[in-house]
Design a protein that fits this description.
about 375 residues, alpha/beta, Aspartate Aminotransferase, domain 1, seven-stranded mixed beta sheet, 13 strands, about 15% strand, globular, binds pyridoxal-5'-phosphate
């Protein structure tokens, strides 16, 4: 008789649904018999520029050391980051992607019976990691697709350990301004950890948006999570980090696996910080791509959620799943977000100009074929 290992898993894990990633190009090619070189992926908010040449060169060099364990403290990367962000290296926690950092915060501060607050439509990793430790996720209804910070503050009680605020949020692209964040932080009791997930902060335009790191001196319970996966173009290598008070960083670094960021990732991330030109190009391509997509949606009569990230959620109507499939058949991978409770929307990552144009053309064709 075979053992039912699912029933033997700890309570939180039994209820988990695995994270649904964007479909990889090779998988779509296999399933639909398409040429992989003709497929474009606008499904995972990756950087359309390809990697920085400085990062690539450093990564190639680092391959020579692959038989050695990585520097478990990430000395060089921490020095570089600390100088860039004007913080002390003791305030940094490196992660295997910022997903790792988000998970570390939950494992360090939330236990069975505790509550973790996040917004409706917020990033899927928060509820997954929360459930895995047996804590209770509290999803606070969104306001116009974005975080309702007043309602989130009001949801805090004696059981609350952590509040997650994604700014900008994925998959909606909504963002809250600096004043709103500061007002919110003032309301949060000082023993409750607030995670400001700034995975897309490099794309912020205008100065009304907060730089979470500026707020750290006033709020010792704040953890700012950032990543090299988006604007810095290193998604495959898995490097992210938290900036916090040294006291919180000390806790997070105890939970962390000793070698959670590998040598190649450390080298590439350290090198890419010198590639200011790459970051600027990332921002420019994103700025013009957002405008191009928004104009295209308007021309098609589609409503979209104005985005501060490198993606846009667009309302394609009740048959979003058929639109998604139609785009796939035309070699365009986007992301359905029904799993986020947004069954009418597709999330489309900003690509290069030609990719955005191809996506919009395909979208037009699919909508015409469904309506005609
Ligand atoms: C992409 C993303 C992250 C970062 O993912 P990593 O690749 O693990 O660094 C974190 N938070 C949000 C909201 C994201 O969309």
């Amino acid at each position: 008789m075979s053992i039912d290992f699912k029933s033997r898993a700890v309570a939180g894990v039994r209820g988990l649904q695995p994270y649904q990633p964007g479909k990889p190009i090779d998988e779509v090619a296999r399933e639909l018999g398409l040429d992989p070189s003709q497929i474009i992926k606008l499904a995972s908010n990756e950087n359309p520029l390809g990697p920085s040449s400085k990062a690539l060169e450093a990564a190639r060099k680092a391959l020579d050391e692959m038989c050695l364990y990585p520097d478990g403290n990430g000395f060089n990367l921490k020095q570089k980051l600390a100088a860039r962000l004007s913080v002390s290296p003791a305030q940094l926690t490196l992660g295997n992607g910022s997903n790792d950092v988000l998970d570390l915060v939950i494992r360090a501060f939330a236990d069975a019976g505790d509550e973790v607050i996040f917004s409706q439509y917020a990033f899927a990793v928060y509820p997954i990691s929360t459930m895995a430790v047996g804590a209770t996720g509290v999803s606070v209804p969104a306001k116009e697709w974005g975080h309702d910070l007043d309602a989130m503050a009001a949801a805090i009680n004696d059981r609350t350990r952590i509040v997650f605020v994604a700014n900008p949020n994925n998959p909606t692209g909504t963002a809250v301004g600096r004043d709103a964040i500061v007002q919110f932080l003032r309301k949060v009791p000082e023993h409750v950890v607030v995670v400001l997930d700034e995975a897309y902060c490099e794309y912020f335009e205008g100065d009304e948006f907060p730089d979470g790191i500026d707020l750290l001196p006033d709020f010792p319970n704040l953890v700012v999570a950032r990543t090299f996966s988006k604007a810095w173009g290193l998604a495959a290598l898995r490097v992210g980090y938290a900036v916090s008070s040294a006291a919180i960083a000390d806790v997070l670094n105890r939970v962390r696996q000793p070698f959670n960021v590998d040598t190649i990732a450390l080298a590439a991330a350290t090198a890419v910080l010198d590639d200011e030109d790459y970051l600027q190009r990332s921002r420019e391509v994103n700025r013009s791509g957002l405008r191009q997509l928004a104009a295209g949606f308007e021309a098609l009569g589609l409503e979209y959620i104005p985005s501060s990230g490198n993606f846009i959620a667009v309302d394609v109507g009740e048959r979003a799943d058929q639109v998604f499939q139609g785009l796939l058949q035309r070699g365009v991978i986007v992301r359905p977000i029904g799993g986020y409770g947004m069954p009418r929307h597709l999330r489309i990552s900003v690509g290069l100009e030609a990719e955005n144009a191809r996506c919009l053309d395909a979208l037009k064709e699919v909508l015409e074929s469904l309506n005609g």
